[in-house]
Amino acid sequence: MVAPDVKAETMKLMDQRGALEAEMDAIIARLTAAGGPGITGGLVDAEGFPRSDIDIPNVLAQRRRLAELRNDHKDVTNKIGKNLEVLHSAKLSRNEQSTSRRSDTTDPSHFGSSQSEPMEEDHVTGLPFAMIDEIADGSPASVDGLQLGDEIVKFGNVEAGDQLQERLMSEALSNEDSQVSLVIIRQGSVVNLTITPRKWHGRGLLG
């Protein structure tokens, strides 16, 4: 059975992505500290000489490492997305098989049988399909309690699967100005929130 193995791999990938993000955050914090050169800032002074107030080789090394981490983060995120598609397909397949078995029990040849199919545990439910990497100030997402790094498991009736963007947009539009249940993973713990899609001064209904 593929789903449990893929789920375990996906959780490991998510841990790996979290470690990459932590290292990126640390590098960005060092580069953007007061007096620092920034992520892309120049390393020469106003007269065109190398800045004497910073360790230029170290800055260059950190910038290279940050670029490597961003590439690795992109690769890991893509792998997570592909695994989520596999898991969703496996879930649909099991649901179809379960429906077929229930339909078969209506056949008279099954009446009187003392055996029954054990209920199969759903190994797919609970996998996040998106991570919050940006929140606009004053947006519904910000006001209603979402935080950077939150991983979205369920938004209203929407879970991981195909045509995700279209389903998320439809769910938000159909619930404008109404509370929508939201299940997230925050720092390893499952958290239940409510969010109200609504118009604000920025783009979209959530921000």
Describe the structure in your own words.
The protein is α+β, with helices and mostly antiparallel strands. It folds into 2 domains: 109 residues; 66 residues, Pdz3 Domain. Helix content is 45%, strand content 10%. The chain has 4 helices and 4 strands. Strands 1-2-3-4 form a 4-stranded antiparallel beta sheet. Helix 1 packs antiparallel against helix 2. The chain is globular and about 60 Å long. The relative contact order is 0.11. About 10% of the residues have low confidence.
Topology at a glance:
Elements: H1 2-31, H2 56-104, E1 130-131, H3 140-143, E2 151-155, H4 164-174, E3 180-186, E4 189-195
Antiparallel strand pairs: 1-2, 2-3, 3-4
Uncertain ranges: 106-125
Order of helices and strands: HHEHEHEE
Structure class? alpha+beta
Instruction: Give the DSSP E fraction (strand runs of 2 or more residues).
Output: 5-15%
In order across it, which strands form the biggest sheet?
1-2-3-4
Report the oligomer: single chain
What do the pLDDT scores average to?
Answer: 79
- Measured distance between first and last alpha carbons: 39 Å
How many individual β-strands?
4
Number of helices: 4
Query: Roughly what percent helix?
Result: 40-55%
The main pleated sheet reads as: 4 strands, antiparallel
- The total tally of domains equals 2
What is the gyration radius calculated from CA atoms? 24 Å
Shape: globular
Pfam family, one: Nas2_N
GO cellular component, one term: proteasome complex
Keywords: Chaperone, Proteasome
GO biological process, one term: proteasome regulatory particle assembly
